[in-house]
Specification:
The protein is 85% helix and 0% strand. It has a single domain, classed as Up-down Bundle (Methane Monooxygenase Hydroxylase, Chain G, domain 1). It is an all-alpha fold and 86 residues long. The protein is elongated and about 60 Å long. It has three helices and no strands.
Length: 86
């Protein structure tokens, strides 16, 4: 257990940050999943609307360091290519 006030404060800050990052990661992943399920169901219009709402969430998570920027760019590229192929 931490004894210093600064280390106690850091524990609180880390716990808050972890919750925020967990929420951002979950929302980004669920938005990706919505796009992927729409693509699998071959519903182009649903996939496009889901993709438009997922893109800012994915890039925001990448900007915050939750995911790698290159990983999100690759994922966005593959999703958009899959939507175009429908």
């Amino acid at each position: 257990m931490a004894n210093h006030t600064s280390s106690l404060k850091m524990i609180r800050k880390i716990a808050r940050r972890t919750e925020v990052n967990r929420h951002r990661r979950n929302t980004a992943r669920s938005s990706i999943k919505k796009v992927e399920t729409a693509i699998e169901a071959k519903k182009k219009d649903v996939a496009q609307t889901a993709f438009r709402s997922a893109e800012p969430l994915m890039m925001s998570a990448a900007g915050k360091g939750i995911f790698s920027r290159k990983t999100m760019a690759r994922k966005l590229s593959r999703l958009s290519a899959a939507i175009k192929a429908l």
